[in-house]
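Model it.
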Amino acid sequence: MKEVVLRSESSSGISDNELRRALAESLGERKSELKKILLIPPDFTRMHSGAGKITAMFYNMLKDSCHIDVMPALGTHEPMTSDEIREFFLGIVPKEAIIVHNWRTDVVKLGQVPDDFVSEVSEGLMTDPIDVEVNKRILDSSYDLIISMGQVVPHEVVGMANYSKNLFVGCGGSNMINQSHMLGAFYGLERIMGRDHSPVRKVFDYAEEHFIKDVPLLYVLTVTTQNEGNVTIHGLFAGRDRRLFEEAVKLSQEKNIIFVDKPIKKAVVYLDEREFKSTWLGNKAVYRTRMAIADGGELLVIAPGVCKFGEDDRNDELIRKYGYVGRKKVLELCRQNDDLKGNLSAAAHLIHGSSDDRFSITYAPGKLTRSETEGANFRYEVLEEVLKRYDPSRLKDGWQTMDDGEEIFYISNPALGLWACRDRF
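Modeled.
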């Protein structure tokens, strides 16, 4: 395989023709020798990553010469529906090519990140070893090449998403998912988001170096932005070396971290109903804005597609039971309750989705009742009434002044950025 780096200074980003040529180049001279390939894109919840298009391009490029399997990196998310497969992969990847990853049953254990390493990188906050588990297909020697695709963007658990996270979490097992999420939550969101070399990233780097070095793997990483629904790919980084991920991190920090000139007293965040169906995903509205919202401020989340809390039924049950009650309380609940202690990714999520009483969080969900919403420790507003006042079709990203003089900061998609005051980052 061949390393390829493609950046665009144009406001329109990398064109489809440029993208196609770069992907072909990344396959190098071995293209004609490839007989069986596994493509690992993100799922539909990363619809603005550009990875669906890239998967479709690889599929078209190779389908006549080799067998192609496509296994979305679901992590704990629900499998993609037929409509999502069709939309995300542009109608090019057939449903028959899709393999569903099950994080509870489809994994094999490769080894452990040792306890002394975990203790060192976490500054003593966690002292247990972490199992390294991946989907069994990643170790299938019949694959000539495995291509892992996805977007590098600020992330609440690992600091900057993608690279080996796509494998160890997206195609990983329960222990790695639970432990890595709790490690990030213990260490602190605001110490992690938007940064490389977080404790969780160091765990993934250890696992990459010690357990999958011999896997025939190609990473294809993107950096993207969105404007009024249109996705722009600013950079493509293809190869295996960590240096390429670091280049993508630098570009994402330029493109995806938005500094505000003053703390936001009221933020209004819209969640596209095609992408956000749970608070598990929708709480990007909370943690991607928390470093920008003023103490005593307000966050209003307009969520027409949100119908549940967890992507996984068990996690949904735990969120409903315990609620978004803040870091200190969740840690106490973990010590007292075996069900939460046994599902640390849910516990971490409860921490991520709380403001720790620093600002209020109000959801206007399309398919959750007032009782359900308030039961999870959010405030509730009626969606139809909120949409009359804050119409997403009329609002523009950034500072807005409403007709009655109310000042808000509007965000049309929290998945593609991190908003912060400079003194908090």
